[in-house]
Amino acid sequence: MTKLTKLTNDIFSFLSALAVNNNRDWFLDNKKDYEQAKKEVNSFFQAVYDKISAKDHLGPIKIYRIYNDLRFAKDKPPYKTHFGLYFPRLQPHYRGGYYLHLSPEGSFVGGGFFNPEAKDLLRIRQEIAMEPEVFSQIMTSTPIVKYFKGQLFGDEVKTAPKGFSKDDPMIAYLRKKQFLLKRDFAPEAVLEDSFFEEVVASFLAIRPFYDFMTRALTTDLNGESLFD
């Protein structure tokens, strides 16, 4: 079965209408439009996954359900107003994952480490401090600069973390508590013929960043594998 590599405005039309009619009755009355949008998006998502899986070691694809979990948040609307895709790299030997978010309010691709455990955060910081040139080369590489402006975003501490000097040349990275990459797309860009290849190129640009982080999180300070 041929997978879609170009999206239509039908998905945004449906999501925009859902945003102002976020209730069960409207959703059921427009279930046919939802199913069509879902079919289109899922085909596109699968095409992206297939393309990246030929270049990286991936775990199973996860296409997020449109239904909000209301068990612990009764004030939420019943439906999400975006479509989301995530696929991790094949853990534990490959770390990181890829996320694609489609919404009339703003679409984006991204990845990184949102909430690393304390031991993983320490190990990431240690590796950056020990390999400053390698990490700097990754963050200033042409693909990272082109697609992600050479920038990491996310929460950070106000001063040097414990065990690291405030004068360390990599302090801007060492202060990070989250290591996230994100590329935004305007709604019209999502509908262009080139969007599929832009998503794929953006994800592939993250690969060296993930390879660095994988080395940090799968080896000790001497570079010995944690799995041997």
TrEMBL record:
InterPro entries from the UniProt entry: CHP02453 (IPR012808), UCP028451 (IPR015996)
Domain of life: Bacteria
A Pfam family of this chain: DUF2461
NCBIfam families: TIGR02453 family protein
Name listed for the protein in its UniProt record: TIGR02453 family protein
Species this protein is from: Capnocytophaga granulosa
